[in-house]
Each structure stands twice: as structure tokens, then as C-alpha cells.
Design brief:
This protein is of the alpha/beta class. The chain has two domains: 7-53 and 303-432, Lyase, Ornithine Decarboxylase, Chain A, domain 1, CATH 2.40.37; 54-300, TIM Barrel. The chain is 30% helix and 24% strand. Strands 4, 14, 15, 16, 17, 18, 19, 20 and 21 form a nine-stranded mixed beta sheet that branches. Strands 5-6-7-8-9-11-12-13 form an eight-stranded parallel β-barrel, surrounded by five helices. Strands 1-2-3 form a three-stranded antiparallel beta sheet. Strand 12, helix 11 (273-284) and strand 13 form a beta-alpha-beta unit. Helix 4 packs parallel to helix 5 (86-95) and helix 4 packs parallel to helix 11 (273-284). It is globular, with a radius of gyration of 24 Å. The N and C termini lie far apart (67 Å). It holds the Pfam family Orn_DAP_Arg_deC.
């Protein structure tokens, strides 16, 4: 195995160095944790999602331990939008995680997975009356209120039900997270949260409204953040806000610090739990607050891959790299098409690594020009029938899938060690229309 890795070109060696849960065995090929992916691909076909339970739980423990090392009591609420499969929620619930939800459906899903209402936070800018009513009735830990209008609606609904609603105000600190513009949430131009300059006045209203229990504040500035600098800027502003609120006689007991911890898709530095914990201790511990975080991608992203198979090697001439068409598509993993996101791609079978390397275009079969996974990517000369793994696909992968082009949903597998079980069966083509109804008046026109 060592000699095979040393023979790889530098860019693939770098990819393996930034992905310590991946290795290449001379016989078994690409190994994910302890799981050889060749056997998974052969047995379950493609496209197929693979979630590694061991990697997921190890990452949760690492994050949790970072706060314990700093003697911080921090509630970890998994951001379900990253991947809300019940098998994933079950694993994290057993580790002690709560949930950060953004819809009524996610609330019911979290409860179904056994997560206590006392460990659930509800974020999101467009909560409906029905969703807020459900949250109040369920008596979840907190509702992260994103506007003055939502606060007043919540008070009205809570009075009607006859229960109190515990709230944190989500504050927009106008801090640039230096991330992709489509996943930044803490700038004044973003739709999220209450403007920083309005925070105190809205928090006063929260104390005056009936059936509202103000706990404190929530701040979330974006996603895929690797540096602690944006967090420091946001936390410092929140400290100033909390001190001002307390100076005006307003009780503040809770600060939800958000999430957005970045992972290494390519060669970038992964966010460090130890550095984030140290920062929170330095800046926030003196305020004696109940602290919470909302990680999603950092936990589940590197815990998942997408297996795909080469359908065709298409040569369009010397002016462009060959097109390698695979059976996974943008309907399966939309991130490259939506965000121009970079995902590592590695062959699964060991013998492929012995072939000549070429610049290849990796594309899906969907009838859209944006169905692209890589451009001019240096890889062994892939041929029809070869299996590949698309890396870091656990977050915002299967959960954002669609059936566009009448393409059935891919199978989902969870592995632990060398054990593998289906957690979602591959959808059949017939499943695509089983709930579709042709209206009765249609037949009258024939």
C-alpha cells in the first residue's frame, strides 16, 4: 500500500493527506475508514451513497472533546439540513447531540429519531404559523427568532396555545465570513437575522411580550469557514451586545454561536475544533453563558462519499480534454452545479492507479451544461465500467437530490468497519410516478 501511494502524482498524495480516513490498498483499492469500496460498488451498484458511521461518530467525539478540554459546557445541535437521514440522526442522538432544525418536517424527523425537545433549536427566516405552533406545543429548547415580525407572531400564537415560547434572537452582525457568496449569512445584505443596531430594541420587546421567555442571542455568519478570524469578529460584537443588554437590566443567559465549520474538500485547511473551543473560552467564557453550536457539514461531509461508474469515455478532439461521462449526475449531487463546488474524485479499483494520467472532464448524463463534476482534472485514464468515489459528499448531497430527468434516487448504504447495510433502497423507475394522478376531466377530452 505504501509503495502504491508513493507512486501517485503529488496532487493525489495531497488529497490523501487532507483526507486521513481514505487510503489505497494494493489489492482492495480505495478504502474508506476500514471499508473497501470495491466490494460496496460491486454489490450495490451505482450511483450509491455511502455513509461511514465510524467516521461520523469519531468526528462528533473529537468536536465534543475539544470543548471538554477547555472546560466549556457547550450544547452541540447538529444542523439537520446537511443530511437528515434517520440513521444519521440516530447515531448522533446516541452520542448526545441535539438538533438544529429549519422546518416543521425536520422537527418531526428529529423527534422520530429520539432527540429530546429540550435539545432542539429552530432556525430559519420563514417559519409558518403551523411550524411555530408545533414548536411551542412541543416545548423545544429555543426558537431562534429572525425578525421583529416573527417575534410578535410567536407571542400571539403562544398566547393562543397557553404556553410560553423560549427564544433567542438571531442577530446579523454584518461580518464577512470570507466564504462563497451563496453560503454567507452574516452580512447586512443577507436575509438572515435581526440587524445588529436593532438588536437591543427588539430584545426589550421580547421581554415585554406575553408568553415569550427571552434566553439570549444566536449568531450564524455562514458556512465552510476555516479561519477563526470571522468567528472572533462576530463573537466580539456579540459580547458588546450582551454587555449592553445586561447594562439595561435585560437578562441574557444563552448564546448560540452558530456553525459553519469548514472541511477540506481539496487542500484547504479544515476548521480546527480545538482552535474554535479556545476562541470561545477566551472571548465568551467570562460572560458565564450557556453556549451552543450548530455544526452540520463538519460532522457529516467527510463521513460520506458517492460511488459512481463511468458510462462513456468521449473524445472530442485535441482541443479539449476527453469527457468522462459517469452515471451520477447533478440530480444526485447538485453542489458542483449550484456552487461551482470542488469535490475530490478517486478511482476505486487499485489497478486503475497504474494507468497513464490525463487531464479529464468528469460530467454527468443530465441534459444540462452545468452537470459537471470536474474540469481538466488529472486522473488515471478512466474507461467505461470503472468505479470512482466522489469525496466529501455526506453534506448537502443525498438530502438535496431530485429525480430530474426521471432519474431515480440513488441507494444509500451505511458502513461500520467492514459491515454494510442499506439504509435507503434504490428507487425504481416505476416509483417515480406511483403518486402521480391523471385528473378525471382529462379523459373527457379524448
Amino acid at each position: 500500500m505504501t509503495s502504491l501511494i508513493k507512486s501517485l502524482p503529488p496532487h493525489l498524495q495531497t488529497l490523501l493527506q487532507t483526507h486521513p480516513d481514505l487510503s489505497i490498498d494494493a489489492k482492495e483499492g480505495l478504502v474508506f475508514g476500514q471499508t473497501p469500496l470495491q466490494a460496496i460498488a460491486t454489490k450495490y451498484g451505482s450511483p450509491t451513497w455511502v455513509i461511514n458511521a465510524d467516521i461520523l461518530t469519531a468526528r462528533y467525539k473529537k468536536l465534543d472533546q475539544a470543548f471538554k478540554d477547555e472546560q466549556l459546557d457547550v450544547s452541540i445541535h447538529y444542523a439537520m439540513k446537511a443530511n437528515g437521514h434517520l440513521a444519521i440522526l440516530d447515531l448522533l442522538a446516541k452520542e448526545g447531540a441535539g438538533a438544529d432544525i429549519v422546518s416543521g418536517g425536520e422537527l418531526l424527523r428529529a423527534l422520530k429519531a429520539g432527540i429530546s425537545p429540550s435539545k432542539i433549536c429552530f432556525s430559519g427566516v420563514g417559519k409558518t404559523e403551523e411550524e411555530l405552533t408545533l414548536a411551542i406545543e412541543t416545548q423545544i429548547a429555543q426558537i431562534n427568532v429572525e425578525s421583529r415580525e416573527e417575534l410578535h407572531l410567536l407571542s400571539k400564537l403562544a398566547q393562543k396555545i397557553g404556553k410560553n415560547a423560549a427564544v433567542c434572537l438571531r442577530i446579523n452582525p454584518d461580518v464577512d465570513a470570507k466564504t462563497h457568496h451563496k453560503i454567507t449569512t452574516g452580512l447586512a445584505e443577507n436575509k438572515f437575522g435581526i440587524a445588529y443596531k436593532e438588536a437591543i430594541s427588539v430584545y426589550k420587546e421580547a421581554h415585554e411580550l406575553s408568553n415569550i421567555t427571552p434566553l439570549g442571542f444566536d449568531v450564524h455568519i455562514g458556512s465552510q469557514i476555516s479561519s477563526t478570524d470571522p468567528y472572533r469578529q462576530a463573537f466580539v460584537k456579540m459580547v458588546e451586545l450582551i454587555k449592553e443588554a445586561r447594562a439595561q437590566g435585560l437578562e441574557v443567559s444563552t448564546l448560540d454561536c452558530g456553525g459553519g465549520f469548514g472541511i477540506s474538500y481539496h487542500d484547504e485547511q479544515e476548521a480546527s475544533p480545538a482552535a474554535i473551543a479556545a476562541l470561545m473560552k477566551e472571548v465568551l467564557a467570562p460572560l458565564n453563558l450557556k453556549l451552543g453550536i450548530e455544526p452540520g457539514r463538519w460532522l457529516i461531509g467527510p463521513s460520506g462519499i458517492l460511488i459512481s461508474k463511468v458510462v462513456m469515455h468521449k473524445d472530442n478532439g485535441a482541443d479539449t480534454a476527453p469527457f468522462v461521462i459517469i452515471d451520477a449526475a447533478m440530480n444526485d449531487l447538485v453542489r458542483p452545479a449550484m456552487y461551482d463546488a470542488w469535490h475530490g474524485i478517486l478511482p476505486i479499483n487499485a489497478e486503475i492507479y497504474q494507468r497513464p494520467y490525463k487531464a479529464l472532464n468528469i460530467d454527468g448524463p443530465v441534459c444540462e451544461s452545468s452537470d459537471i463534476f470536474a474540469r481538466d482534472r488529472s486522473l488515471p485514464n478512466l474507461q467505461p465500467g470503472d468505479f470512482i468515489a466522489i469525496l466529501d459528499a455526506g453534506a448537502y448531497g443525498s438530502v438535496m437530490s431530485s429525480t430530474y430527468n426521471a432519474r431515480p434516487m440513488a441507494a444509500q448504504i451505511m458502513v461500520s468497519g467492514k459491515q454494510a447495510e442499506i439504509i435507503q433502497a434504490r428507487q425504481s423507475v416505476e416509483d417515480l410516478w406511483q403518486d402521480e394522478i391523471i385528473p378525471t376531466f382529462s379523459s373527457k377530452n379524448t
